[in-house]
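User: For my dataset I need records formatted as: sequence, then structure tokens, nothing else. Please produce one.
Assistant:
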Amino acid sequence: MSQATQTLPRPWLSGLRDAIPLLGGYVPVSISFGLIATQAGFGAWEAVLISTLLYAGAAQFLFVGMVAAGSPLWLVVGMTLLINLRHVVYAPNIAPWLTTSRWWPWLMHGLTDQIFALAHSRLPQMPADRRLGWFTGAALLAWFSWIGGTALGAVAGEELTRRWPLLGEVMPFAMPALFVVLLAPRFTSRRWSLALFSSIAIALLLNVSGLTNTAIPLAAACGAACFYLVRPGATVRGDRNE
């Protein structure tokens, strides 16, 4: 075994280290969810249970809002599944990098948007025998931070925002800012840049036109179509990692 291999940190420790920047978005947003869930009539333990079992970011906010509004169960379930339909796109993009293991079906519960973006860039760069450990560390850190933030928001969210009003102003922007950070490296590719800019432009156009409910799904569909229609190979600044 080479000296370079011997000095590598354990895979799960590498996953933990790589996922630490995600906490800047996960913790404020999960605190916000815990606070909103209790304000909607859910108990603190119910909010934590939703974050533990559902663990779906935006879908959780929709879930508690629809339940609090008295929406029928079939509609709540249907809308939650619709928002999470993006995982149908995630799965085939990450599957080539998943090594054989019986643990992957369980670990896929931790496949969030941010973990997918991180795994999509990290997994191809590491040896196959390190991928399972890396994903385990990254996914568990993100999951536990989301659960912990939810508990904190449910128990002490009102006190935190009363004592530090700026926290209440920052929380709504934490997750969008995190997405921007994850997407920024992709702008070195012409293919990715066209897809991202077309999604942004269409979303803004639809919002200005008053079609706010359809802006995100239509923009995402158009961006995905643009990505697959553009011929791969052309890059910005010579980066060919698409």
